[in-house]
Amino acid sequence: xxxxxxxxxxxxxxxxxxxxxxxxxxxxxxxxxxxxxxxxxxxxxxxxxxxxxxxxxxxxxxxxxxxxxxxxxxxxxxxxxxxxxxxxxxxxxxxxxxxxxxxxxxxxxxxxxxxxxxxxxxxxxxxxxxxxxxxxxxxxxxxxxxxxxxxxxxxxxxxxxxxxxxxxxxxxxxxxxxxxxxxxxxxxxxxxxxxxxxxxxxxxxxxxxxxxxxxxxxxxxxxxxxxxxxxxxxxxxxxxxxxxxxxxxxxxxxxxxxxxxxxxxxxxxxxxxxxxxxxxxxxxxxxxxxxxxxxxxxxxxxxxxxxxxxxxxxxxxxxxxxxxxxxxxxxxxxxxxxxxxxxxxxxxxxxxxxxxxxxxxxxxxxxxxxxxxxxxxxxxxxxxxxxxxxxxxxxxxxxxxxxxxxxxxxxxxxxxxxxxxxxxxxxxxxxxxxxxxxxxxxxxxxxxxxxxxxxxxxxxxxx
Length: 463
Description:
seven-stranded mixed beta sheet, 31% helix, 12 helices, globular, alpha+beta
């Protein structure tokens, strides 16, 4: 098959790339190749009864498929340059924000209308944080919720399905450069395209690294984020979540001066398993529908680690920590904060007597046997720091799930158009190492499609 554009990956970057191309020029022949399932077929087999833990499916329906790893997230679109990626370094701060706002408008028109936009502007919470050696990052946050996020994706798929050719459960194995065209191969097939957009997300990190090595595209090591997911009564953080919903708070530890940050806050949400490259880690979801909400709030506490010499593979380090957790706990480990600071493992009896009921069935254990002391000490310091602005955070029954790992792709060398050294080969989204969020990944997809469309309209360049 011959295409004008092939998009590898149907996560947010790929979806918004296809959307922008079709909106501007429906005559373009566009293929979207995705390793996972279409949206309606994405269903994790864990039901809490017959299947209670990860069974390592060939393709994880939580992490792969239409919508990418963000399909079953809590649908937070952070409109900011302060976190979520470094897209602004390539295209400029104003254009990055304009594109994120454009993505937000599309989400609203495809089912997200009525959802709330939160903001840290003019909040007294920022002062409260500063008074307690904490830094609240600036952002506007659109919260769709896991349920409304799904509706938006359904509607976007409905718009796109008859305009582009989707191939699901199709793993792209190779990309070749041949005289101004690209050969995209997988599963005994090979297709040609003039432009190729690669948007494989974090789950495609290993594959992306292999392709870059083969094509001699320069990369550099990115960081890995390690930590735990905290779960506590929603009332403890309600003064923060009611006003801000998502509060990105950074703390510099006294002992090592490491930075610990909150991440992915889910008011009245649930804690869930996540499978990355066969390793079970932990994450969180939340819903807009009050009927699906719980009495707990969860969020991650993460410490970033970046390796250079002599060891460079940050992701490999994170995977080794996660594998150790899986080995000791058969998956995710759960521990009460009171047990952690006493130096004892949690057991089923202590968890059952806790005032906080876990929303994820995890194995009681001891996180100090898994996480390095420096990282764990920083997390404990952060919990006590948060206790000053949200009293009750450091309660003994606060639950800690581990490990939570955020893997980041090697940062791929691209130019200000997010184009590699090969004309027409673009690397976008979290797979590029440039973006780390739904909003930034989606914006990068729109941006690259607009670069392609400029060439289509410029007849002098001989499309």
